[in-house]
Amino acid sequence: MDTYEGRARLEWWANRSTSLGGFDVRVTACATDSGWTCEAILDGPLSAEHQEVFHVLMQADPVFTLCFDEGSEILVDVADVAAAGDGGRLAFTVCELAESGSP
User: CB 3.0–4.6 Å: which of 32, 40, 75, 85 could bond 95 by disulfide?
Assistant: First the structure.
């Protein structure tokens, strides 16, 4: 099993040019024979304003872009395992988007 531990950024995009929120996270991702698992902890406590933004974005759509320092990124569905605004844990699964005809 391969494990990656490091920093990443969790971003919520309204469209291709407008990010409505970004949150630094510490990620632990493990590759297994059947796929991968990934958990994260927000890197530092969020201010009350950032907690509210995080919760609004999660309610709107829990699909975020997980961006790694080396430039790679992946769409993830975020589950709030514990109160994330209070420094809790997040769990990610790969987001499977429906195919569309648009580029």
Answer: 75
Report the predicted TM-score, pTM, of the whole model to 2 decimal places: 0.80
Q: What is the DSSP track for the chain?
A: -EEEEEEEEEEEEEETTEEEEEEEEEEEEEEETTEEEEEEEESSPPPHHHHHHHHHHHHH--EEEEEETTS-EEEEEEEESS-GGGT-EEEEEE--PPP-S--
With contact defined as beta carbons under 8 Å apart, do 42 and 89 qualify?
no
The amino acid sitting at 95 is: C
- CB burial class (10 A; 0-12, 13-18, 19+) of residue 17? exposed
